Amino acid sequence: MHVSVADRRARFRALHAREALFLMPNPWDVGSARLLEVAGFDALATTSAGFAWSLGKLDGQVSRDELVAHVAELSAATSLPLNVDSERCFPDEPGGIAETVALLAEAGAAGFSIEDYDPATGRIDELDRAAERVAEAAEAAHSLSDPLVLTGRAENHLRGVDDLDDTIARLVAYRDAGADALYAPLLRDLDQIRTVVEAVGAPVNVLAIPSGPPIAQLASVGVRRVSTGSLLAGTAYAALVAGARELLDDGTSSYAVSGIPDEVRRAAFDS
Prior knowledge:
Number of strands: 10
Strand order of the largest sheet: 1-10-9-8-7-4-3-2
Number of helices: 11
Radius of gyration: 19 Å
Order of helices and strands: HEHEHHEHEEEHEHEHEHEHH
Structural class: alpha/beta
Strand content: 5-15%
């Protein structure tokens, strides 16, 4: 069923406005996107790491042109709203952040994120500068006739900076700069997550991780959105590596006992 980009953006905004948690897993290619759509999720998001791996690259090595083409491909392949892991929004590319937002919108994105870690320096950006970048992204996103949902990301915990007070200060600053949703990847303690949700007073995204609280507990403290980051892609690639190792080392193929059910494969791929 064809759903216009405008309708998908309206749906994505509505998901953030309602008082209920929604799940937003992260496909890394068309096949995984279609499988997740068939599974019944409300929205999808790209994963910078998962997509990079699909190109044989490390996270952070994907170009803006490659990301935009990826977004266009996934947007055309499913009818779900698509959020984009756009890293720093490529501020050093021609036209900077504003041009990145325009390109993502043209490619069919319903939302996107901007993060405050600078791989060039290996450090988290100064708060004022990071908030300026969020404001620039917000202006570009919200000036569109069908606005994109902007997620402001505080990368502290993902980068080994275990400072909840600073994380909250950053998320509040990004909210005040115009971010519609906030995200601090790798928060795993339910009380800390509750504290963030209460302090921010805006939709909060949490990364679903093995050591984190189950979805029902996240919903109970007011989390609005849960994503999977690169974890689904990593699990899929790990299964491939384990199967290949079994075949090479043991000469057996027990890895092939489980697979995609035929009815799911047909539903996802028979277009």
